[in-house]
Amino acid sequence: MAAYPPDPYAISKLNRAEAEAYLGRIKLPSTLLDSPPSLSLLSTLLLSHLEEIPKDTTPLHVPEEQWTGPSTPIKLGSAFTNMPLGASSFDRIIHENKGAFCFSINATFASFLRYFGFTVSELVGRSFKSLGNDPLTHPDGWKWGTLTHQILVAGWPGSVDRYLVDGAWGPCNLAKPIKLTTDPAGETIIGLNDFEAYRLVYEPLPLSAHMTPPLDVVPGFTLSRRIAPVGTPHALPITAASPGYWSPLFHFHLASVSLADFVLYHHFSASHPELAAFTGFWLVTRLIPGARGARRSMMYAEKEGEGRRAKVYTTGGPEAQGSEDGRDVEWVEMETGPMKEYLAREFGFKF
């Protein structure tokens, strides 16, 4: 693990040349460099970021030198400590056109936002472990995991509001900023199409009735997405009588996290010899530019009898009408030769 940082809450910020390179990476014009911070700018930067920069676990499975030379089998977890941490992932993300996971992508995105004058808090969230299910009716109930997801809260001088932004959740990612509010009703918005809806509520961590509540409770924010029967568009306001249910994504507290803590969270997720969950699957996923929420993903996990091929598929978008079924399916062998060719052609990776 990395040494304890001498300044645990040091804030990283891109310079003008780095910000220009970032804009080029997400296919936005350099004329934005002199734009003042605003909700409109934040929305534009977030969406373009999600359309161009993938959540990507490949550095955990392939050492960089394995991409050169003859094609060889890809073994999950074989690179282990190769995932960059924090803003040190800038070169991989911006110049090599690759991705990373949340502790790299969101830290780098925060540095980018600060160039424009946004004030950005780097936080950590507790992921929901029964994704897609209704915690009020499913046997899992309120099944929470550990603090393994970095998120951002952005504001700017002169604005009374602050917004949750997340550049690295992956599937079901909210691609718009959503306002933090302590109003009991929370904040509800429609996503990139009428079949996406999200709610952010200020509350203590929700727990099932059979769970022991903590002795000391500090309220935080729960982000959930609305799941309705396929073919049912969402319309505001969403009430208890509206079709569907709220399924949580994560819960977080509005408390800045130190660089030392992010080192620990990163180790738990990416390099712990027994607990590092991200070493167990291969994932590359990003929004399709201009497709209003449609997403292209590549996924592989070792399952007996399924062969060694990664599945590539499209989900979401208005044409899916709320269905999570994959379409336009392709398969890629888990070998460095065909994988390198596919990632370069379809995801723009540079090797």
TrEMBL record:
InterPro entries: Arylamine_N-AcTrfase (IPR001447), Arylamine_NAT_domain_sf (IPR053710), Papain-like_cys_pep_sf (IPR038765)
Any one GO MF annotation of this record: acetyltransferase activity
SUPFAM superfamilies according to UniProt: Cysteine proteinases
Membership in a protein family: Belongs to the arylamine N-acetyltransferase family.
The name this protein goes by in its record: Arylamine N-acetyltransferase 1
Organism: Mycena rosella
